[in-house]
Amino acid sequence: MLAGTLDPSTDWFQSTISAYRKALRLLTGPLERRLGLLNRSLGLALQAAAERGDDPELLERAVETYRSACLALNREQAPKEWGVLQARIGGLLYRLHMRTDKIELLKESLTAFQGALQVIARAEEPFRWADVMHNLSQSLQVYGDHIKSVEVLQL
To answer: Which residues make Cβ contacts (< 8 Å) with residue 21, sequence separation at least 6?
Structure first.
């Protein structure tokens, strides 16, 4: 996937996305963890392609793929991975909201960030925790502006 950022003459992101999708179709046996990891990797490729091409449809697909990854990398069995996925989902939903102005997307992003903070501890991962807190604060600020509520801004 790194090649996609270095060589703009070839669409490495689409090649990567195609390879991950093919791998998902070929998986057999106990799939839980492998399926989650593969969906996470596919989500990363979709997100990178979306950001490169400024494509909201790919952002939406990345969100759905990350959500699929969360089914296998769930909070009980893989809390840290689940938390990172929640933070990614929150960030993408926030960006989609900024493009569409759909308040439901912003509410979903708040829920995702709050979920991430349930498993990302300040003492254990201070930089990741700060990043999630920053993104949550930014989303709350936009949400407070939408509903014109000082109380939301004071959270």
So the answer is: 42
First-last CA distance in the chain: 38
Which pTM does this prediction carry?
0.83
Place of tokens 């106990």: 30
- Among residues 39, 43, 35, 80, the alpha carbon closest in space to that of 61 is found at 43
91, two tokens: 């960030």
Q: Which domains does the chain have, with CATH numbers?
A: 2-153 (1.25.40.10)
pLDDT digits (tens, 9 = 90+) for 41-68: 999 999 999 988 889 999 999 999 999 9
Which positions ≥6 away from 151 have C-beta within 8 Å?
A: none
Q: If 0-12 CB within 10 Å is exposed, 13-18 middle and 19+ buried, where does residue 1 land?
A: middle
CA angle centred on 48, ends 92 and 42, rounded to 5°: 85
